[in-house]
Amino acid sequence: MALVLPDLPYAKDALAPVISANTLEFHYGKHHRAYVDNGNKLLAGTELENLAPEEIIRKIAGDAAKAGIFNNVAQAWNHSFYWKCMKPGGGGKPSGAVADRIMAAWGSYEKFVEELKNAGATQFGSGWAWLVLDGGALKITKTANADTPVAHGQKPLLTIDVWEHAYYLDYQNRRPDYLAAFIEKLVNWDFVNENLK
Ligand code: FE2
Questions:
Q1: Alpha helices in 85-188, H assignment, sequence order
Q2: How far is the CA of 152 from the centre of ligand 1 (A)?
Q3: Is there a smaller number of Cβ atoms within 10 Å at the N or the C end of the chain?
Q4: Residues 96-129: tens digit of each pLDDT
């Protein structure tokens, strides 16, 4: 099977109160699992079956006839990446190489946060906010629905899921509050630095 539901890197209640165990029960246990299961069903018996998820995403991005496969495979990939972008007691100012790169690109941590929040808040409907490497440069970007920087030749460094299922049980319609709490209290900067290597 091409897609695997990875173990969460922490207990389901470890991110509370920023993200509740209840949210993770649904988001990881139902939504992510459904992308994996549906993706594997759609991939079974096709020429894509034995490829890595990243290869599938690059190969079929923009192919309308394969949109169903793309959506499930990309969502499976995006979620596996998203869980690793958080840790209990994370967030706040970064350290290491990414801190220097953020200063060079945005001039201050505060400006970076403003732009990341803005990307997440202005993604109309479902989608994702990202910090990516694009041609060697750090960029903040956003994608709609299942779309992913992996499909666009960019290297994801950090993501925030802004689908309502990521925050609605804890924040209802207050997406900006979820974004602020995620950035202040959850970001796993060690993982971001690993991705930068
Ligand atoms: Fe999600």
A1: 96-106, 109-122, 168-171, 175-185
A2: 20
A3: C
A4: 999 999 999 999 999 999 999 999 999 999 999 9
At residue 1, the pLDDT reads 59
Sort 58 into a burial class: Cβ within 10 Å, 0-12 / 13-18 / 19+.
Answer: middle
pLDDT of residue 186 exceeding 80: yes
Cα 21 to middle of ligand 1, angstroms: 14
Tell me the HSE value of 101 on the side-chain side, using a 13 A CA sphere. 20
Cα(79) to centroid(ligand 1), Å: 6
In 3D, which of 105, 107, 110 has the Cα closest to residue 131?
Answer: 105
| Interval between CA 128 and ligand 1 midpoint (Å) | 9
Render pLDDT for 140-168 as a digit per residue (tens, 0 to 9). 999 999 999 999 999 999 999 999 999 99
How many Å lie between the centroid of ligand 1 and the Cα of residue 80?
Answer: 10
Task: Using the mean position of ligand 1's atoms as its centre, give its distance from the Cα of residue 169 in Å.
Answer: 13
Predicted TM-score (pTM) of this structure: 0.97
